[in-house]
Amino acid sequence: MTGTLQQMLTCLWSARRIQRYLDADPAARLTPGEISRLEGHLATCEKCTRVAAEHRALHRALSLWSGGTGVDPRSVDRVRDFLAAIHDKDTA
Amino acid sequence: MGFSVVTHPRHSDDSAQGPAFRELVEPEIEVLLRVALTITNGAADAEDLVQETLLRAYRAIDRFDGRHPRAWLLTILRNTNANMHRRQRPGVIGDWELIRTARPAFGRPELPSAEDSFVHEELHADLDAAVRALDPRFRAALILVDVHDLSYSEAAAVMGVPVGTLMSRLSRARDRVRKALRSSPLTRGDLS
């Protein structure tokens, strides 16, 4: 009973950190201690390992649309020319 | 298309600031255009928005501390868009329809992998429905981070919210989409 409760609490603790762990974003890094604890839990908990895998797969699936807002290279060139024009106008 | 280049009078050291400004901004042009495409009505509007953003950034360069130029530019982009399109598209960020219909992965020069093709064929409809069902605020967080690959800080800058708020919305969005796809290939382990 105590073991089950402990497991539930650890799963809850892990669920709150899995996304930050996977993102490793500079604005919200986990501490080395948290990473160690989470990785230890993922090594033994099938449920949380599945959740982590789902998050990875979801990110992968969404990233397939990343070029979808397909930036036209000619548009980039025009903006680059505009940038140069700002400077040239000021220094003329 | 585009704005005429009319800049404000500046300090005497403009000639030194110009190249520095260009070095700072040029690497960010593509991401600015990409984000602009999701918050405007099309490529022409997006380009206009980015040009206006760069003009405002140039005028404000004296107040920029030099850190996190992308987040700084995205903040200006957001504010500029709010001024330019307030009446047209209030508060809509990350228009899923624009992204969904573009089908980017398959417009890339390189051939899609077998996995990419699988995602496109089998998962697309479910994923589309799940993302579409999200609250617009949650959807915006998801699109900016997972589709556009912005950092938490950058996405927060675009949305005009604190990083903590962005993280909360992102987390909820991902959890809702993940749970909505419980019976899809995404969660059967086929893609992991």
Structural notes for this entry:
The complex is a heterodimer of chains A (92) and B (192). Chain A is mainly alpha-helical and 92 residues long. The longest helix of chain A is centred in the C-terminal third of the chain and has 19 residues, at 73-91. The mean pLDDT of chain A is 87. The radius of gyration of chain A is 23 Å and the shape is elongated. Chain A has one domain (2-91). Chain A contains five helices and no strands. Chain B is mostly helical and 192 residues long. Chain B has two domains: 14-85, Rna Polymerase Sigma Factor, Chain: A (Orthogonal Bundle); 96-180, Arc Repressor Mutant, subunit A, CATH 1.10.10.10. Chain B contains nine helices and no strands. In chain B, helix 3 packs across helix 4 (69-85). Chain B starts with 13 loop residues before the first helix and ends in a 12-residue tail after the last helix. In chain B, 39% of the residues are buried. Residues 1-16 and 100-112 of chain B have low confidence and may be disordered. At the A-B interface, helix 2, helix 4 and helix 5 of A face helix 1, helix 2, helix 3, helix 5 and helix 6 of B.
